[in-house]
Predict the structure.
Amino acid sequence: MPGDPRTVKLTSWLWLLCGLLGFAGPIGLILEASRLIGGLAYGDPVTGTVLAVRVLFCGLGVAAALALVRRHRIGIVLARASLATSVVFALARASLPLMPSNLAPSDEWVRFCLTTLHAVGWWTYFATSGRVRQIYGTN
């Protein structure tokens, strides 16, 4: 497949991932922050920590989306890191009862399972897609 990787068109799957990381992540953060912001007024350190971690993870996802769109090799690494941290955060949220959530404890495990399936699906796509290898030079 000849040509400069920067001129190769992104597939619709990569655009979908960029949209999820770059738009859905920040929108989810805004919705969660609007719900949790009241706990900060009472000096709740857990709420502040959860919110700060979510902001960092959201920033990682946005950085991954921008790097993928710009076709930088680091984009795949950032996307994998973002997916892995989302799984770790979902596991922590499901297993630690002190983390604030709007879901029932049994539903947190459903969220964890769905987040894990989402991450595994994208990792599989990164590993098997010829277009990803062509654009980003991954093995």
About this structure: The radius of gyration is 17 Å. The mean pLDDT is 86.
